[in-house]
Amino acid sequence: MSYGIVDLIANQQDRPQIFEGIFAENAATVDSMLEIIIPSFDLNQRWGPCPWTPRPTDGGIDLPSRGDRCLVALDDNGNPWVIGWWPYG
């Protein structure tokens, strides 16, 4: 049985509304919408596509890659947004 992310957290008011996630795919461009995995829910379920922000670097910008860690927040409609991310390793 498949559940939406809102269903998974609906009865868990004591749980945070910000979750640790992992990017499930590489970003091709700065406007790519990416899917993420929230390990505390299910290691095989992908969520999204999610908006995210590129990271500025000295030489330009850095894009997320598969396996990079991220923080995922839910908006009032239950849509996941990546609010921060860190390169894997």
Distance between termini?
34 Å
Using only C-alpha atoms, the radius of gyration works out to 13 Å
How are helices and strands ordered from N to C? Answer: HEEEEEEE
Major sheet strand order: 3-2-1-6-7
Poorly predicted ranges: none
Structural domain count: 1
Level of helix content? under 10%
Short description:
The protein is mostly beta strands and 89 residues long. The chain is built from one helix and seven strands; from the N terminus they run αβββββββ. The strands form two sheets. It has a five-stranded antiparallel beta sheet, with no helix packed on it. A two-stranded antiparallel sheet has the order 4-5.
Topology:
Blueprint: H1 5-9, E1 18-23, E2 34-37, E3 46-50, E4 55-57, E5 60-62, E6 69-74, E7 80-86
Antiparallel strand pairs: 1-2, 1-6, 2-3, 4-5, 6-7
Account of the protein in words:
This protein is mainly β. The protein has one domain (5-10, 18-86). The protein has one helix at residues 5-9; strands spanning 18-23, 34-37, 46-50, 55-57, 60-62, 69-74, 80-86. It starts with a helix and ends with a strand. The model has no long low-confidence stretch (mean pLDDT 86).
